[in-house]
Amino acid sequence: MSQRVIERSAFARAGLVGNPSDGYFGRTVSVVVRNFAARVALEQSSALRIEPDERDLDVFRSMEDLVESVGRQGYYGGARLVKAAIKIFHDYCSERGIAVGKRNFKVRYQSSIPRQVGLAGSSAIVTAMLRALMAYYEVDIPRQEQPGLILSAEVDELGITAGLQDRVAQVYEGCVYMDFSRELMRDQGYGRYEVLDPSLLPRLYVAYQTRPAKVSGRALNDLRIRWEQGDLEVLDSLARIASLADEGREAMLARDHGRLSRLMNQNFDLRSRIMAISESDRAMVETARNFGASAKLTGSGGAIVGICEDDTVRERIVRELGALGARVIEPKVH
Fold this sequence. Notes:
By secondary structure, the chain is α+β, with helices and mostly antiparallel strands. The protein contains 11 helices and 10 strands.
């Protein structure tokens, strides 16, 4: 039996402008954060076996330890994401008559992406797993179709409320402008994705809560209901948020960092009109802004991203956000 191991990974993601309009036929600009990654390893085996990540082991020192773990990570681990990825890959191949043979495998997965802070840790596991399956079974899935499959694993199989942004960024990597217009999605089943030169970006920072207070993904549920009901405030705000992505792309191409910074702030302000913002998230944003940096949520909540090119200001932000229980990093985009 061959002992060749297939290893694949996918990085964390931070939305720069436009989110959360991606789930509502909008537009976004996002970057991957290579500081954190989900990694998957497949190896041929007599039976299909999923080996849990150490963070998913149900062994605790006490009931208090269990409660703390649930508060920090939620009730669900990565195994369900791996299973969903396997199922959508199987369904994709079956529907297209692609024979994958009878080879089983054992899969090991791990992730350094902080959980429940809006850095796309769940979709990274699915993305890495899909890449590993494609390599293991030598199946070529067009790149533009991969984000939709990854989204299907989370939305259709697991009932997670999400949009395409995270999956597109993780599949294409670097910095990506995305257009999810209703017409494009209807006519071809995927959006228009443009990879932008990461060197156009100003100096960014990402700050995330080390003890998140919520399970990521829930924040979008109420917004979805209001959108489906035709709430005018939601429709108008999401349209304006989507337009910020177009302006952000223009600002990047013009290397107008000041304009991009203002657009990121506007993104957060518009989001605040239609979505609840936790006290800890608002405190991070306001603290960073008080020192002159821009700040917005990277995703559903728990982490912020912004522009700060002054070293002195950056040091103060690191110190002040640290006092709020947040860790600050400089994201590696490429």
